[in-house]
Amino acid sequence: MSEAVQVHSLLSDFDISLFRSGRHYKLYEKFGSHELTINGQVGVYFAVWAPNAKEVSVIGNFNGWNPYSHQLHVRWDSSGIWEGFIPNLQNGEVYKYHILTNQGERLEKSDPFALHTEIPPSTASIVSTTWYKWTDSEWMYNRRETNALDRPYSVYEMHLGSWMRDPDHPDRFFSYLEIGERLVPYLQEMGFTHVEFMPVMEHPYYPSWGYQITGYFAASSRYGGPQELMGLIDALHQAGIGVLLDWVPSHFPGDAHGLYRFDGTHLFEHEDPKKGFHPDWQSYIFNYGRNEVKSFLISNAFFWLDRYHIDGLRVDAVASMLYLDYSRKQGEWIPNEFGGNENLEAVRFLKELNEAVYKYFPNTQTIAEESTSWPGVSRATFNDGLGFGMKWMMGWMHDTLSYFKEDPVNRAYHHDKMTFAGVYAFTENFMLPLSHDEVVYGKQSLIYKMPGDEWQKFANLRSLYLYMFTFSGSKLLFMGGEFGQTSEWNVNQSLDWHLLQFKPHLGLKKFVSDLNAVYKNHPALYEKAFSPEGFSWIEMADHANSLFVYARKGHDEENDLLVVLNLTPVVRRNFRVGAPHEGKWELVLNSDDAKYNGSAVAVKKKVATESVYWMNQKQSIVLDVPPLAGLVFKRVL
């Protein structure tokens, strides 16, 4: 052993016990690299898990990348942890681990717990810190209300590197702070309650969008250091905007410097490719049955909630974790111990993850991207659920987009696509997503999914958004959708902000801003978002007119809303609509309004009910309903 590495440990016997039992949820406090002062001497402590390694050393600029000069000490307790203190190093030092395997291979690996990395394509780790002086105490204190399931949840999903770039230097990424200077006022203007960042963890291949992660604890250095990302999150919190992160515990890439075959064996992934290799993404699946891997993943979730003040995690590709036969043909997968296709180890992991998150970070949310009919994804684990706070409503998304793609002439024959979601809408706490996946790979932008001429396309999209924001559940819209981005999302360039010089795009942006305001200011749209008590169809069978009428309800019936959707280009004159309550109803939003570039068909601002039984309601009102438009009315006493 080299005397250049002093014996030192941050790990107690209790830490080791928790780690080996899969219940150490703050490994980032112990593993990785940490600048310390020991006996008056500044240096860096290193700790890495490599149980099948013959030797582990730290290499870097400080020793000329010499694998023999700074060898770490293996712990005596058979935990497989190598550690030690190297004097005269400090934050900013570039390093890797050199691993000599039992088979004689020599590997150079990035630190799985590195807090910072070199800018790709360079792959070394950088000694860093997550110290930051936060100024978001008011947000964190009030988060139990602002981030709750009975509060408005309107999420702006975005990719940091392609949201906006410098027009004079379009190939340059804005830094986290430069993004914040533009993003914070924009989200305030648009009225979104939350922003969701596609994965910010370090990833070597930029076109993977961040979903092929090598540095699970490192904020991507493409946009700056850890403190700059913290500054962006801090600024968003001070502006009253919650921050969600995409999190990927389902798979990781096979890059030589990453987790794959970390110590020469299949340490983080399953050894058998029938369980450990992902055919869709050509990546590797975590071994959820290995306790140390479970500790690693749950610690990573805690890390972002703890050190970065994240308000929630959207967990990617949950379906691929739950099913052993996901994207596999017969003979390409191994059944579980009962002969089924459920990945019981992944199920246990997800339950433990959610139980731990909600115990230690009770004011946050976990959101599952889960595309199957797996029961109880967002139900409590004590009710045999998986324990997520919300689940993406993929069925609603596919059915709704399929309906809106139809020419209005044909919509009468597809009416059930709009109403079917009501059958299962309250089996989960659903989030309605119009996500990045729907505007890439030849699927077209949202505006070009809509039929008709330019005016009709925008009218249809405004109607779709009104339907989305007034239907049950929370909301998510991918960047660019709010102003009618015409081209598909391209990760390598900025959104087409120049489109806002044109009235249709400017009108759509204004409409989404007003729609968010209506959503946030009317409790009927969020207080019972996940309960059948909060939604009732008034007219769901008018196939001929492609017309839909429904009511939204909160805790107080004085706040009830009435929604009317006309999804044909025909104006419905003197159209009678059932009303859930007697009295006057006031128009609070009209997607056909001239300020949104609508046709401006005159609609009464206030209308009184008549004692005419209609649509199974004792009271009704008579309206002129604009073409391809939605109307929202509020009860006024």
From TrEMBL:
Keyword Protein biosynthesis recorded: no
GO biological process, one term: glycogen biosynthetic process
Listed GO CC annotations: cytosol
Superkingdom assignment: Bacteria
Presence of the UniProt keyword Glycosyltransferase in the record: yes
Subunit structure: Monomer.
Name this polypeptide is given: 1,4-alpha-glucan branching enzyme GlgB
Natural source organism: Sphingobacterium zhuxiongii
Gene this chain is encoded by: glgB
